[in-house]
Task: inverse folding
């Protein structure tokens, strides 16, 4: 049957009692119902239930709107009612309507694009319920709700100075997860807000006064815009002074990853007047898609008004991610508390979307566990570093990865993070980009690489009859390299010799043969092995100067070696 209410509920929060006009004293409570329509369909509609005898009897008003949900009403300065409703169709803004007959019927429902809504219960109330009808104070309203179109978060207080036409006042009550709320003016000039701080067991009660709201009655408006990335947008913003005295200050927009601005001055704007100020807005090269620009006026007294301007940035689609990582326990003293074999090292990855569209990110392989997820579209093990919807320019941190230290890594005293990542467009499982990443070395102890090199007295050396031997007189040296540090050294290289690796505390020796023409005949000095030997520990290179108690001068006529104290060249 048309008009039949299949199910219904009284909206959580509280109702109102009218204080002005011919309906003074009426009690009004809001409901949402699943109502049968004339075409046999059903729709969630709002309606008021009223009592004029103190609650003894109640009358239902007419059904209002479609795709409605939890709704509240507030008495305006002239006795009319404003309905403010959650939108069950999820279009991102509150729905409003006006009643001229105190809740029996309402005007057509419209969106209030000053009030973001993530499909959530909110509240609206008078700031000064005892104010004289049609006075400036009677026109002031307080709204509390989640300040987001996509998540139940950042419950905020907003202030209107004109019966809900505009909402210039904005102050955050709680950042992060927060949902349903109810608000009311209480004693001593204060306001109370009771709200959900999570979805299970945290209900918070907050109080504040008008000065905490820190608002100025100076609403701003600007047309929606369309622009390109990497440009400067000239945005005209109109500000109206609803205060009883002149105001001065500056208008700017909140800097984000997409927008940046410089303040523009407003000087001596008289009461009731409006002016338009053009704000230059720089648009980031990575900007793309639908955007919201938060504009703020700050008066010389420090009070603020806010407005949200919608726009669109049209740009070619770009994708890509940047992955950075670091040891999670950076405060650990590796000198006194080094890692040991088998220990699980905690690691954090920070993944940034460097494209201009939202992307999914899935790591598929790496020397960490937990870490990897199954390929996009497939099930994954519990605990992984994927993100199913990373917004453009956003970053997420994954803190769950663990790396198990191996004996081989501990011999080198570091390990290298090796990971593979994939990313792509939301709603499409096709991989657009993939990355194999070798991270920076992660110390397992306080590394102190060092070594020493010594050479023996040079001696004549006979030819070996190898085809590679050149004709001439040969001399030879014994070279001894000792690893005096606490880490394994690799690629130990000096003039005429090399060692693939030398463990900490280990000594290795070799013999180097040189031709007579390697001798600096003009000075009669052996060119020897040069001054420096190099070695690697990971990406760290260390050097050691060749040391010897004696260097030698050679007599080419007699081939006899004479001791002479001097450093090698």
Result:
């Amino acid at each position: 049957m048309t008009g039949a209410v299949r199910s219904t509920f009284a909206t959580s929060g509280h109702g109102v009692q009218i204080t002005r006009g011919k309906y003074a004293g009426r009690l009004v409570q809001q409901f949402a119902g699943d109502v049968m329509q004339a075409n046999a369909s059903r729709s969630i509609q709002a309606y008021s239930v009223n009592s004029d005898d103190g609650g003894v009897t109640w009358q239902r008003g007419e059904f209002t709107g479609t795709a409605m949900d939890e709704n509240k009403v507030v008495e305006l300065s002239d006795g009319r009612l404003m309905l403010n409703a959650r939108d069950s169709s999820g279009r991102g803004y509150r729905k409003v309507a006006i009643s001229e007959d105190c809740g029996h019927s309402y005007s057509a429902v419209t969106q209030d694009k000053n009030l973001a809504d993530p499909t959530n219960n909110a509240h609206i109330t008078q700031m000064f319920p005892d104010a004289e009808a049609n006075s400036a104070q009677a026109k002031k309203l307080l709204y509390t709700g989640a300040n987001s179109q996509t998540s139940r978060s950042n419950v905020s207080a907003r202030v209107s100075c004109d019966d809900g036409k505009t909402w210039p006042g904005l102050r955050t009550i709680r950042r992060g997860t927060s949902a349903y709320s109810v608000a009311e003016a209480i004693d001593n000039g204060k306001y109370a807000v009771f709200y959900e701080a999570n979805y299970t067991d945290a209900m918070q009660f907050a109080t504040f006064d008008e000065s905490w709201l820190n608002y100025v009655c100076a609403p701003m408006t600007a047309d929606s815009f369309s622009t390109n990335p990497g440009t400067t947008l000239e945005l005209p913003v109109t500000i109206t002074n609803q205060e009883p005295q002149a105001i001065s200050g500056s208008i700017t927009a909140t800097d984000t990853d997409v927008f940046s601005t410089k303040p523009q001055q407003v000087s001596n704007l008289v009461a009731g007047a409006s002016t338009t100020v053009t704000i230059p807005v720089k648009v980031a090269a990575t900007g793309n898609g639908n955007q919201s620009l938060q504009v703020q006026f700050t008066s010389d007294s420090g009070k603020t008004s806010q407005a949200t301007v919608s726009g669109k940035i049209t740009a070619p689609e770009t994708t890509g991610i940047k992955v950075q990582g670091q040891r999670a326990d950076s405060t650990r003293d590796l000198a006194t508390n080094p890692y040991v074999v088998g220990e699980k090292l905690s690691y954090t990855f920070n993944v940034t979307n460097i494209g201009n569209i939202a992307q999914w990110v899935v790591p598929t392989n790496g020397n960490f566990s937990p870490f990897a997820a199954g390929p996009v579209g497939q099930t994954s093990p519990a605990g992984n570093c994927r993100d199913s919807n990373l917004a453009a320019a956003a970053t997420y941190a994954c803190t769950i990865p663990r790396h198990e230290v191996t004996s081989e890594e501990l011999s080198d005293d570091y390990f290298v993070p090796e990971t593979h990542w994939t990313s792509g467009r939301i709603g499409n499982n096709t991989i657009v980009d993939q990355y194999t990443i070798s991270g920076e070395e992660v110390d397992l102890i306080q590394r102190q690489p060092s070594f020493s090199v010594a050479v023996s007295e040079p001696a004549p050396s006979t030819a070996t009859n190898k085809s590679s031997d050149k004709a001439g007189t040969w001399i030879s040296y014994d070279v001894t390299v000792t690893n005096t540090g606490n880490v394994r050294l690799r690629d130990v290289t000096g003039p005429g010799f090399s060692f693939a690796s030398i463990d900490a505390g280990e000594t290795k020796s070799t013999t180097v043969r040189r031709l007579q023409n390697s001798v600096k005949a003009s000075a009669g000095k052996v060119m020897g092995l040069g001054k420096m030997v190099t070695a690697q520990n990971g990406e760290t290179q260390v050097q050691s100067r060749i040391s010897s108690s004696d260097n030698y001068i050679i007599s080419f006529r007699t081939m006899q070696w004479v001791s002479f104290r001097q450093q090698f060249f």
